Amino acid sequence: xxxxxxxxxxxxxxxxxxxxxxxxxxxxxxxxxxxxxxxxxxxxxxxxxxxxxxxxxxxxxxxxxxxxxxxxxxxxxxxxxxxxxxxxx
Length: 89
Hints:
Layout: H1 4-23, E1 55-56, E2 66-67, E3 77-78
């Protein structure tokens, strides 16, 4: 009687049973960390050099595209014409 296939099957079965247990050790991703879709992106640029981030680069070109001039955390002045300066209201 050969014991090699029986031992091999037992080792393989124990390995397959351990895989789901290993997968359960990883916590699920936390979906509460992302900002709501309607919220503006966090300020990324200090446009006036005062140490406070007060502008956004929404086009991804390294220049400010919108500014928070009243300090409420939301953009209120925009650059629609692409000259790098806030457009007049």
